[in-house]
């Protein structure tokens, strides 16, 4: 039996760590800040990958692979990019005993090597748009590591596109943030706020960074995905040009976009509880677990029935496992499957068989119910769909309840000191107001939502009282 998970009410961050380790999602590695993703965690990541990969392909994006090692000088070609990333870059200086003439960077992201290569791939208007993605690992030095949320090496996908016009690149960057929104809301059942980052929070080298921001159970924000309109910054830095239809050389415009294993953190901190992981059915590697209750005297007949139920559910296309292990009590098994977050549990013993019924329980509900065995398939189908929807709705309700519109600074300060959550408040657009709030309250602008309340923008900046330009989502964040 796993050790006890610290209750959320007692210590939210300890709860998170206990859950990640005891549900066997990930473990610490010998190198500080690195993480071992265990089979149960990786299986969830694989479902995310498969789902997203299909969504990317539906947008015409193709997969490819670039190397981990990048000549350090590449990072220096785009001024903002190097300034933003150099404090986080890990470098390789030796090959065996021999010192390298030029250090190599372990990629923190791949814009530079990709745009170096696009110079060869993009020559004519016929080569555009160019839409690629890679599933890869990246490295960023991390002072305050946390499993899944901040690790030195993490897994992600990074999409990179090249376009003939600035408008097209911008349109594509926006399109991808909406792909992420759809994925995170539909599959992970996590509602998000979609918008544009302020200049001080955008990606180094981007014209605009779009983000989706989710609210965790403790009211803090987690940036769940970003998409960047890179303008012609990387095209220029790597001297990529193309011959347009008129035969003239023209600049090439870019977008890049990514989500990472951080999504695992978002998933855990949105839905899970003190008993362990809670997984939305669409994402769960195992959607249904069957736990037959038997004794030595009736084992054969109970297990034969369990096998037939298993086959029935599997044939209907659901991901199901049969826990017929000997030597563990049903109660022990139930606790294990709850810890692992399997959405639906079916249990039965000989007496249930005689009455042609089954006992079912949803991971996100405390109660059990009895159903007729003949209704099993339709029950499973409906319940998985309902649970997916209920998880989304309850997360959405929490986000709505904990999003407060605020107009004056004393109330704004009090809100973050006493409750915390998202504050929807006007901003003049000046970075000094952001700095003040960050220093005093450790609160940042998460994004400026795409859907702006036009009336509110005619108001005053919540910090300085000057004429507001935007409505912003402010919050503490992971
Ligand atoms: Zn201001």
UniProtKB/TrEMBL annotation:
Alphabetical list of Pfam families matching this protein: HGTP_anticodon, ProRS-C_1, tRNA-synt_2b
Reactions that this protein is recorded to catalyse: tRNA(Pro) + L-proline + ATP = L-prolyl-tRNA(Pro) + AMP + diphosphate
Keyword presence, Cytoplasm: yes
GO annotation, biological process: prolyl-tRNA aminoacylation
Signal sequence bounds: none
Major enzyme class: ligase
GO molecular function, one term: ATP binding
A GO CC term attached to the entry: cytoplasm
Residue ranges of every copy of the Aminoacyl-transfer RNA synthetases class-II family profile domain listed in the record: 41-280
Principal location class: cytoplasm
PROSITE patterns given in the database record: AA_TRNA_LIGASE_II
SUPFAM superfamilies linked: C-terminal domain of ProRS, Class II aaRS ABD-related, Class II aaRS and biotin synthetases
Keywords, comma-separated and alphabetical: Aminoacyl-tRNA synthetase, ATP-binding, Cytoplasm, Ligase, Nucleotide-binding, Protein biosynthesis
E.C. number(s) listed in UniProt: 6.1.1.15
Location(s), subcellular: Cytoplasm
Subunit structure: Homodimer.
Family: Belongs to the class-II aminoacyl-tRNA synthetase family. ProS type 3 subfamily.
Description of its domains: Consists of three domains: the N-terminal catalytic domain, the anticodon-binding domain and the C-terminal extension.
Protein name (Swiss-Prot/TrEMBL): Proline--tRNA ligase
Organism: Entomospira culicis
